[in-house]
Amino acid sequence: MNYTINSNSVENVNCDCLILPVFSKGILSGEARELDTSSRKAISQLIKSGDFSGKLGQTSMLYNPAGMTAQRLLLVGAGERKKFNGRSAAKLLNSAAVAVTKLQVADVHIALADVLPTDRNAAWLTAYVAQSMEQAMYCYDTTKSKKNKPPTLSNISLSGPDRTPRKRLEEELGKGRAIGKAINRARQLGNLPGNICTPDFLASEAQTLATQHNSLRTKVLSEKQMARMGMGSLLSVSAGSAEEAKLIIIEHKGPKAKSQPYVLVGKGITFDTGGISLKSGAAMDEMKFDMCGAASVLAVMECVAELALPINVIGMVAAAENMPGGRATKPGDVVTSLSGKTIEILNTDAEGRLVLCDALTYAERFKPRTIIDIATLTGAAVATFGSHANVLLSNNDQLARTLLNCGEESLDRAWQLPLWDEYQSLLNSNFADIANIGGPRAGTITAACFLSRFTEKQKWAHLDIAGSAWHSGLKKGATGRPVGLLMQYLLSRRA
Ligand code: BES
Ligand code: MN
Ligand code: ZN
After folding, report:
1. Would you state the pLDDT for residue 161?
2. Which end of the chain, N or C, is less surrounded by CB atoms within 10 Å?
């Protein structure tokens, strides 16, 4: 998709469809007033008819409207003027995108010159237009024999919001487009079935990234290499599987080679049966999404390279398949992690933390400025937060606050849970240094407590995305979260 700024007055914009936000209670933006006048009151008449109220997200189409060059005029409800914030803008843009992608149109213009959200600036809105358009264009068809028709939509222009230099707005369009594409890439990897998206598949995707972007280098550790290093915890998860586990490391180098890197670690369980602690059958197919943390890391690394961020970033993926089998790890088995700590595996379904702990220990060698792991870690996170929040736990309050703010800014929100010492004793074991489960209570917190034992020397945050990473039910599919949050974080860092 091609995005441009077009500062012609709206009635003269040449396009197949002109998208016009309209507030409720008949409040018209400057551009809406211009078009109402030139169309001899077509807009105010439609509102008067009662068919279109301007309710947030409502749409209404006028064909061949008088007094403008555009062939179609799509009115999109913006809701109450006073309540129009970043979240409303997102909803408006999504409705517009859904409506417009159903049409046989190539060129679309969005009249956003003076509908700024109360809590955002023009730069944000401009980037978000491109991001949400990209997101709306995604549709999975890889494993369907009938492929989607290629979209007709190819050019989207925007009225330049007031007083922001055009160059700046064009940069924002590029940024939003890259983030939207990254979100789609994470969705695509998440949606692929477990028989295609294996640890080996993730490794070759990472290798391909490095061939496509000069700033990226990829290294993949085999099981043999991991065994030699002493990653007994990670390897205990893949023991029952025919698929070989992989530890994937992607490095992005900015201009300052020696600057300390930001490190991301993704949980990449390409399918989670639970292992010997087998899950029940209901919705088990959704455990193909147990690599969504890994997907977000791969997508972010590509986006970081594409936008040539001036910082060093290292993305790691701990990829394995969790299966029962003759060689599978059993409850009660004790393994030795890379850190030297021994772990009693009381439940083989608590496998995410077992792959992550060795990856987090490995990451120490990079002397990270901060380290963030992203994982579909606990059912308890879904039970507590449903699908709306990324759940954040951290051993550093400043890092936590920064990430919470990035979540608000990107509309990919996070909510923090406590990581108090009092919870740590739930992980005591009679037979090892630590148990891999903390019992039935406070499951999201005890999972983070487990990880915290392996990040004591680091500024670390953990994002449990078990609720946010995919939709269940009719809309079943990966969401691409928390790519938006992570990109917001990295875009606001300095080298
Ligand atoms: N991948 C699951 C977490 C999960 C479950 C995410 C359901 C989304 C929906 C994870 O590996 C897991 O099985 N966690 C267990 C941990 C328990 C055994 C301590 C859980 O949450 O039930
Ligand atoms: Mn599990
Ligand atoms: Zn899992």
Report:
1. 72
2. C
